[in-house]
Design brief:
The chain is of the alpha+beta class and 197 residues long. It has 5 helices and 5 strands. Helix 2 packs across helix 5.
């Protein structure tokens, strides 16, 4: 479910210390029935396992294929446009206590892990359009349970990056994030049935 931006910005997450020049673009919640205060790592493991075992839905897969094809044709994802060559990694802003919590080469997909704590983690990516952070947090719900929250923070690359973010907004809200919500909630429900458990 999509949430107001203040549901992320109003919480004392560590990520706020390192992203004052980023804008919180999207905030979504994922229901995790039966979750307790110490289940954040379990939720992360469930969605990581799901990402490696299943493919996205048809519409999402199509949009991703179009995006990666355009990126390849137009050079959006060229390594020279990413972390390091174009923009410094946010790891350069983090204290050692946080950088030591993850292996930066161990992230699923295009995101590079920044840190992982007992109730939040952050991953980043950069290309010719944006420098982005995906923040996942573990939040207590009014009924005493807990749920997973995702916030996407972005720093667009100039006018082109701002235009790109505006053009993809309807696809994010109508297709990508609802499909991601269904998958992440299903991954939590099915976590005990995953291979190797």
């Amino acid at each position: 479910m999509r949430l107001p931006v203040r549901e992320h910005t109003g919480r004392p997450w560590r990520i706020h210390e390192f992203t004052p020049d980023f804008t919180t673009e999207d905030v979504w919640s994922y229901r995790t029935p039966g979750a307790g205060p110490d289940d954040f790592a379990t939720a992360l493991a469930a969605i990581t396992a799901d990402a490696s075992l299943t493919e996205p839905s048809g519409p999402t897969r199509f949009l991703m294929a179009v995006r990666w094809k355009l990126g390849a044709l137009l050079g959006w994802d060229d390594p020279k446009a990413g972390l390091g060559p174009r923009v410094p990694s946010l790891r350069d802003r983090l204290p050692e206590e946080l950088t030591e919590t993850v292996d930066p080469a161990a992230g699923p997909g295009p995101f590079v892990p920044l840190y992982e704590l007992h109730d939040e983690c952050a991953r980043e990516l950069a290309n010719r359009t944006v420098h982005a952070v995906m923040h996942l947090g573990w939040v207590e719900t009014p009924d005493g349970g807990h749920e997973l929250r995702m916030a996407v923070l972005v720093k667009p690359n100039g006018r082109f990056g701002r235009l790109y973010m505006a053009l993809i907004a309807p696809f994010r809200y109508l297709i990508v994030y609802p499909a991601m919500t269904r998958r992440r909630e299903a991954a939590w429900r099915d976590r005990e049935r995953r291979p190797g458990r």
